[in-house]
Write a structure and sequence with these properties.
By secondary structure, the chain is mainly beta. The protein is about 15% helix and about 50% strand. The protein has a five-stranded antiparallel sheet with strand order 1-2-3-4-5. A hairpin with a 2-residue loop joins strand 4 and strand 5.
Length: about 100
């Protein structure tokens, strides 16, 4: 279990093989409730290659000194990410 935000990761190994590779992370908020956006790739077990980049937004709660996962939202494709980006731009246009 992670005791600080820097230790939180989305990378995942099973039997010594990396199945989910974290490419980047961005902390959106810190505190007793922390929100982190991860950029990652999953391994395609058939081809042995990592697939396209995906995004996961995850919330963690710090209890008794450790961060516990509480919720997550997966953005599964570049098209979905662009649609979300576009709508957020509509709701919150750039400030002039």
């Amino acid at each position: 279990m992670a005791e600080n935000v820097e230790e939180l990761t989305i990378s995942y190994e099973e039997d010594g093989q990396l199945l989910r590779k974290e490419l980047d992370k961005h902390v959106l908020s810190k505190g007793s409730w922390t929100t982190i956006m991860f950029l990652y790739q999953d391994l395609d077990r058939k081809s042995g290659e990592f697939g396209p980049a995906k995004i996961s937004i995850r919330r963690f709660q710090k209890r008794e000194g450790v961060y516990l996962p509480r919720s997550k939202f997966e953005i599964s494709s570049a098209a979905q990410a662009r649609a979300i980006q576009s709508q957020i731009g509509n709701w919150f246009p750039p400030e002039e």
